[in-house]
Each structure stands twice: as C-alpha cells, then as structure tokens.
Amino acid sequence: MTRMSAAGDSIPREDVLTFLKTRAKNGAGLVYTEAIVTDYESAQGYPGQARILNQNQVDAWKKVSDEIRSHGAVSICQMFHCGRMAYEGINPANRVIAPSPVAPMQENPMTGMPYPVPEPMSRFDMDHVITGFVETAKGIVAAGFDGLELHCAHGYLLSQFLSAYSNRRTDAYGGSMENRYRFIREVIHAVKAVLPDDRLLLVRISNWGIADMEVSLFPIHRVATDGETVSEDPLDAVSVSTYDFRKRL
Ligand SMILES: Cc1cc2nc3c(=O)[nH]c(=O)nc-3n(C[C@H](O)[C@H](O)[C@H](O)COP(=O)(O)O)c2cc1C
Fold it and tell me: Which of 140, 166, 198, 207 fits a 20 to 30 Å CA distance from 114?
C-alpha cells in the first residue's frame, strides 16, 4: 500500500520498512511492497513515493528483502507509472503523460484542483517509460526481491492503456483489446529480459480505477478468465483487484 513516506532520497521512512519486515516475522508467507515509481521523469503521481534506481535505494530495500527471507516468506516488489494520475510539479521533468489527452473527470485530492490534460505519449516517451520499468527491475533484482509485480491496475499508466475510456489512440496501441494490451506486453517482455530465471514476474489488473469510477474501464473477464491475452506472456501470476467483486466482475 502506497504510504507516501519517502523524503527527497525516495527511500520510505524506517517505520514503513519495518512494517513490511514485521508482517513476515508475524507469519505472512508473501509480502508485497507498496508500488514504487519507475523513473525521475513522469512516473510519480503522489508526494513521497519510493524508487529503486540508485545504490542507496537498493541498499535500503535489500535490508527489507533479506529480513523477509530470513522469516521464510517470499518478497515481491510492486512498481508502476502513474500516467495521467499526476500533476504539474510532482515530477522533476514537470510532465504528465498518458496514452491520450484525456484528463480524469474529478479533482485531484492531492491538490484540490482539476487534473491536467496529459500529453499523449510519443514513441520516444513509450521507450523511455519502458526503460524506467527495466531500470527499476534491475534495482529490484539487486535488492534481492524474489519477484516483481507490474501494477497494471487501478487507473494508473498501464491500466490507462487497457481502458478504452482513457486510451483513444488510433495507432497500434489503441482500439482493440489486443492493441490496448500491446504496450503492457512490451513492458512485460522488456522486464522479463533482465530478470534471472529464479525471480517471479506478476501483473496486477483491475476493472476499476481511482479516477472515473463510473466508467467501465475494460471487460476484465477478457484478460482474467479467457486468458488468451495474458497467457501468451511469460508471467508467473496475475493478481486481480476487483474492489467489489460481486458488483463489478
Ligand atoms: C492509501 C492506499 C494505498 C494503496 N496503495 C496500493 C498500492 O501501492 N498497490 C496496489 O496494488 N494497491 C494499492 N491500493 C489498493 C488496495 O490495495 C486494494 O486494491 C483495494 O483496497 C481493493 O481491494 P482488492 O484489490 O482486494 O479488490 C491502495 C489503497 C489505498 C487506500
């Protein structure tokens, strides 16, 4: 769970890291980190988010994964890019990017202001975002985690590509479900290429987002049960977040 506790060094506060270690100590078999952001350009959407992109950050997280392992539990580090769920000034590069120039409908609770209309991602942007995921994956490996999860849920960047509401692209990344999934597939394969065989690769999907809840984001059963799309990719598990599964699946 994103705790927004990191200072300028993008390392979570000590008590937040202790919380994760304590869960393993108390018997949890699988411990997830909060979603960390994948670059210093455009990935951040909230204050105080964490990264694993330099040695100090790797060292801080290594203590967490070591202790989780010492209690016999499996550690997974989750990562994401916030895409249009961001605002000017939150990222050093001062950019808000997304598949298409569609702003979330409601106000940003962080600023009390409307979200900005995001810049539609160019191919250059897409490659740069993939690089962020890959560099973060390397950091996660160096920090000793047993696996990583791509957060493709809850209306953040990868989920914004899946949703026909936030993705209005007319190129190979928009339109059909297959096209809307294409960018995620590129991220999966790029990350897989830097993961040792003994590390797990997971994705998290949902049919809801924290913005525009009233809009049906995409038919989750296409991905979750038919499995035609994700099952072709080198994944160890799919984590399905349903918010209220009785109403929304
Ligand atoms: C403050 C806060 C932070 C959250 N951070 C994350 C996160 O980092 N990663 C994530 O997958 N979900 C995050 N969530 C969403 C919840 O983990 C969860 O998905 C949601 O409560 C719905 O439950 P379900 O996923 O079991 O359907 C967060 C929720 C809250 C309230």
Answer: 207
Domain that holds residue 106: 14-241
Provide the 10 A C-beta neighbour count for residue 63. 15
| pTM tops 0.85 | yes
Number of compact structural domains in the chain: 1
User: Which protein residue's CA is at the shortest distance from atom 30 of ligand 1?
Assistant: 1
Catalytic residue annotation? 156
| 247 belongs to a structural domain | no
Please report how many Cα atoms fall inside a 13 Å half-sphere around the Cα of residue 145, on the Cβ side. Answer: 29
- The per-residue pLDDT for range 150-160, each reduced to its tens digit, is 999 999 999 99
